Amino acid sequence: MPAANLPDVTNELREAPHDSAPKAVGRDRRESEQLITDWEQETQRLGRALALMTLDFSAMMGPKWAHRFVIAVSPVVEDWSFLFYGAKFAALMELPETPDHSVPMVAQLPARYVPVFTNGGIASTLSSVAVRLQGAIDREDGRRELYRAAFIAFRPEPNRRQNFALGAFNCRVAERRT
C-alpha cells in the first residue's frame, strides 16, 4: 500500500493551561506517527478499512495504546464520548482511569484541548486519510505547551452511519524561544 498523502493541520491555541499541564514528554511526534503507521499496516493486512470489530481490545491495555483513544462521533459535537483511552492519555488530560460514557467528551477535556479534539474528529470524518494536528499553547509561566495528535475515522460496520475516531495524542512543555 503506498503511503497516504496525509494532511497536516496546525492549530494555534491561545488559551493558557493551568499549572498541572504535563511536563516534558518527548515522544509527542512518535505517538501520532506510530498510530498512522499501525493503521496503514492493519488496513493493508485486512485488505479493507478498519472497523470496530477489527480492533484488538486485549492489546488496548498495553503500552502501545498508552496515548491512544477512541471517540464515538455523532453529528452533534456535544454528544461525542470517549469509548476508550490509554493510561498516559488519561494522565495528560487529567481524566479518570476508565472513560465515563455518560459525560460528553467536551465536558471531560481540559478547555484548551476541546478545539483540537473537535477539529480533529470533524476533519477525520470528512477525510479518507488520517488527519494530523499540531500546535502550541502559550502558558502563564512563559513556557509553551506543544502538542501533536492524529485522528483516523472508522465505522463499526461498513454499512452503518455511526462514526468513530481512532487517535493518538501527546504533548510536552518547552521553554519559549526569545
Fraction of residues in helix = 10-25%
Order of helices and strands: EHEEHHHEEE
CATH class: Alpha Beta
For the record, give the distance between the C-alpha atoms at the N and C termini, rounded to a whole number. 43 Å
CATH topology: Beta-Lactamase
Biggest sheet: strand arrangement = 1-4-5-6-2-3
Q: What does the average pLDDT come to? A: 75
Strand content: 25-35%
Largest sheet: 6 strands, mixed
Judging from the principal axes of the Cα atoms, what is the shape? globular
Describe this structure in words.
The chain has 178 residues and is of the alpha+beta class. It has a single domain, classed as Beta-Lactamase (2-Layer Sandwich), CATH 3.30.450. It is 24% helix and 27% strand. It has 4 helices and 6 strands; from the N terminus they run βαββαααβββ. It has helices spanning 28-46, 87-93, 105-108, 114-125, and strands spanning 8-13, 68-73, 81-85, 131-138, 144-154, 163-174. The protein is globular.
Task: Provide tags for this entry.
single chain, 178 residues, alpha+beta, Beta-Lactamase, six-stranded mixed sheet, 4 helices, 6 strands, 24% helix, disordered N terminus
